[in-house]
Amino acid sequence: KKRKSNMTYEAFLELTKKNIKRFLPEPFQEGKVEIRESLKNNSIRRHGLCVTNSQRNKLVPVLYLENYYQELEQGKGIEDIWQEIAQDYRNYQKEEVMINGTPIREWDYETIKKGLTVYVRNAQENVDFLADCPHEIREDLALVYGFHVLVDGEKDGSAIINYDRLKWLGVSEEQLKQDAWENMKQSNPPCFLDLQDMLAKMYFDEPGDVKAGSLEHLEDVDPNAMMYVLTNSNQVNGAVYMCDEEVMSLIAEKLGSDLIVIPSSIHETIILKETENMSVRELNAMVEAVNAEAVNPQERLGNFVYRFDREAQRLEKAVEQAEELDFEPGMSPVFA
């Protein structure tokens, strides 16, 4: 029977940093071992091991250590774990990172530009994270910019562009934002379906033609359906399109209504036609309950619903409409 370790996580990180080079081959001996704390979405902190050299603009893999610590807690020997970490890190080092078929090893803007994208995050839950990277605030949401890569042709990877990385890339924030929106709309366009069709697409993998730069499936949508889903063509990080006034205006016109937008996760939003009998309070409570029970903490977008004003073409936080009270002229309002 394996004996469980009582080593703290902090001690594990420190010992790993000191000892990992013993298990790494010669080329890594000149590098500097770092344990970097990364702020992920919703202020979730993760610790990653990387071995850096003096070339600051080179891309280096970061291997997150939380799962290895869990193995230690479950009784695996620490030297066996270091052996595993070293092997995994060597494998990562050999993997080819591609953007649109182009191998990438350093911060080269012309290559990175082809993988640029926009992510939406909850602003209140990411205050420290946002302080370090270019962003734009919309209501209580934040738009941040990064790029999407394929590792060895199949595994997805991504990186947020912070101010340091922006400096290495040598472009302005304005240029970055413009290029990120343009590239995302071209390579991973918005996709709008009624909920039933979306479930069929997810579970039965019905093929659809990707029309680059267009709002997919809009013309086929039934304007009288109960509920709709807005995402992107690969259904990952697709909620960002709720912040695109052009996309939202097209949807509002198609449905002939102002819209209620429910942030189910960072990947997609639920869209409803706004009706007079909707209770924003109840919708907010529903979103909060679903977040707590069914959404990974790192994928939550927020606990509030939004509305898109069709005439003003603006997204805003939905507020409960107070009941209108009519009084005769000269009467004083009396409340029981």
Largest sheet: 6 strands, antiparallel
Low-confidence stretches: 207-213, 323-328, 332-336
- Rounded average pLDDT: 85
Anisotropy-based shape: globular
Secondary structure class reads: alpha+beta
Portion in strands: 15-25%
Tally the helices: 10
Task: Walk me through what this model shows.
By secondary structure, the chain is of the alpha+beta class. The chain is built from ten helices and 15 strands. The protein has helices spanning 9-19, 66-73, 78-94, 109-112, 127-131, 163-169, 173-187, 195-204, 245-255, 280-294; strands at 32-40, 44-52, 63-64, 97-99, 102-103, 116-122, 135-138, 141-151, 155-160, 190-194, 228-232, 259-262, 269-273, 306-309, 314-317. The strands form three sheets. Strands 4, 5, 6, 7, 8 and 9 form a six-stranded antiparallel sheet that branches. A six-stranded antiparallel sheet has the order 10-11-13-12-14-15. Strand 7 (135-138) and strand 8 (141-151) form a beta hairpin. The longest helix is centred in the first third of the chain and has 17 residues, at 78-94. The protein is globular, with a radius of gyration of 24 Å. It starts with 8 loop residues before the first helix and ends in a 19-residue tail after the last strand. Mean pLDDT is 85; it is low at 207-213, 323-328 and 332-336.
